[in-house]
């Protein structure tokens, strides 16, 4: 079963997701420049949102992406009461996790350098990559390393290559809602890769982008001098975005091993997709605007369908209709054409703040009612 989530959301002047120059991200689509919010930005805003934290933090089902694995490992070893020499030996090896697949003199040199570091220095080192770790992964991994160190002896363990140590551990599988949804890829055999059950598109404006710049000054409050103490400028835009998420239900259940948690996850994802906001320059712009349309489609066949091509020709506002009104209308028209052409049966429900309707879809009054509509059985969906 596939669950597709479509949103139309207008943001007031803002700079929600910056590129390397500090300007809002953009992309060409349909031979026109569009405003863009990256999928990575959207995923982070969702998984770090209050909605997700409230729904899952009490169950220990949220993960953290970090390079500070050595510090986490040291803290867990100390909680487990491991001997000091064992803790030191293990923590010195920890920065090598993720590097074990590489070969050559440079890695041998890194191994020798690690042996000379103190426990504190090693714990503050970072792994070569960000590792997406669930809260239930570090304790069993620490216990395995303690047993391995005890079996081999501290001196032998310290001299063993990191790839040999990692092979002896086996891989760990996370039990985390955000890893199950958004996936995990590492180069370390100690952590199993997870195929994402949720695909997230880059948000694109439904219309042609008009980039703008704010020239600003700052006055020194103490000096008493007239004029500006600082001059700068920042790029911004205002755009109506089309956002698209696709959830493979069976994949999510398989990743989590629990149908009820998967159901809670889909409900939290829809709620967070609607309510969570990217944080970029929000102190300067406060563009906290909610979607004016949220549409959910459920189909038995695993055929995800994005309706971004509804906006291949940039939308234009009219005297009677805003960009949002026109965007909702174009989305509904395109959806109807695609459904007629391909004959893929699906159930649809939506809510909108506009007067425009979406064809062949059940209109509900709001977000909570949309989540209640979800035809997911055998799950315990959370209340609003």
Number of domains: 2
Number of helices: 15
Reading the helices and strands in chain order gives: EEEHHEHHHHEHHHHEEEEHHHEHEEH
Q: Gyration radius, to the nearest Å? A: 25 Å
Unreliable stretches, pLDDT < 50, 5 or more residues?
103-109, 377-384
Distance N terminus to C terminus? 24 Å
Structural class: alpha+beta
Average pLDDT confidence is 90
Helix content: 25-40%
Number of strands: 12
Global morphology: globular
Q: Determine the strand fraction and express it as a percent band.
A: 15-25%
Could you give a short account of the major beta sheet? 10 strands, mixed
Write structural notes for this entry:
By secondary structure, the protein is an alpha+beta fold. The chain folds into 2 domains: 2-23 and 211-373, no CATH class; 65-175, no CATH class. It contains 15 helices and 12 strands. The strands form 2 sheets. Strands 1, 2, 3, 6, 7, 8, 9, 10, 11 and 12 form a 10-stranded mixed beta sheet that branches.
């Amino acid at each position: 079963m596939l669950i597709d989530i479509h949103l139309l959301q207008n943001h007031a002047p803002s700079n929600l997701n910056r590129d390397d120059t500090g300007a809002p991200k953009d992309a060409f689509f349909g031979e026109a420049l569009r405003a863009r919010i990256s999928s990575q930005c959207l995923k982070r805003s969702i998984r770090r949102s209050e909605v997700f934290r409230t729904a899952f933090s009490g169950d220990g089902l949220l993960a953290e992406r970090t390079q500070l694995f050595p510090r986490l490992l040291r803290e867990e070893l100390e909680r487990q009461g491991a001997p000091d020499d064992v803790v030191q030996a293990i923590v010195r090896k920890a920065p090598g996790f993720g590097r074990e697949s590489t070969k050559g003199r440079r890695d041998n040199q890194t191994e020798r350098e690690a042996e000379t570091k103190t426990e504190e220095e090693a714990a503050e080192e970072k792994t070569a990559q960000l590792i997406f770790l669930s809260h239930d992964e570090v304790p069993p991994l620490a216990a395995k390393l303690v047993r391995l160190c005890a079996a081999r002896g501290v001196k032998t363990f310290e001299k063993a290559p990191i790839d040999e140590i990692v092979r002896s551990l086996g891989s760990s599988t996370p039990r985390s809602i955000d890893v199950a949804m958004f996936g995990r890829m590492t180069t370390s055999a100690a952590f199993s890769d997870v195929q994402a059950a949720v695909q997230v598109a880059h948000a694109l404006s439904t219309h042609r982008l008009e980039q703008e710049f704010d020239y600003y000054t700052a006055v020194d409050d103490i000096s008493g001098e007239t004029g500006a103490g600082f001059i700068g400028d920042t790029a911004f835009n205002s755009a109506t975005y089309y956002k698209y998420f696709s959830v493979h239900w069976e994949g999510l259940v398989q990743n989590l091993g629990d149908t009820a948690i998967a159901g809670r996850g889909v409900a939290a994802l829809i709620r967070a997709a609607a309510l969570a906001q990217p944080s970029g320059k929000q102190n300067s712009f406060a563009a906290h605007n909610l979607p004016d349309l949220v549409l959910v489609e459920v189909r038995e066949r695993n055929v995800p369908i994005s309706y971004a091509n509804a906006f291949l020709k940039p939308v234009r506002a009219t005297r009677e209709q805003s960009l949002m009104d026109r965007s909702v209308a174009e989305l509904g028209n395109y959806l109807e054409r695609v459904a007629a052409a391909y004959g893929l049966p699906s159930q649809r429900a939506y809510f909108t703040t506009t007067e425009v309707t979406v064809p062949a879809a059940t209109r509900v009054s709001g977000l909570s009612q949309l989540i209640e509509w979800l035809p997911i059985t055998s799950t315990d969906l959370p209340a609003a």
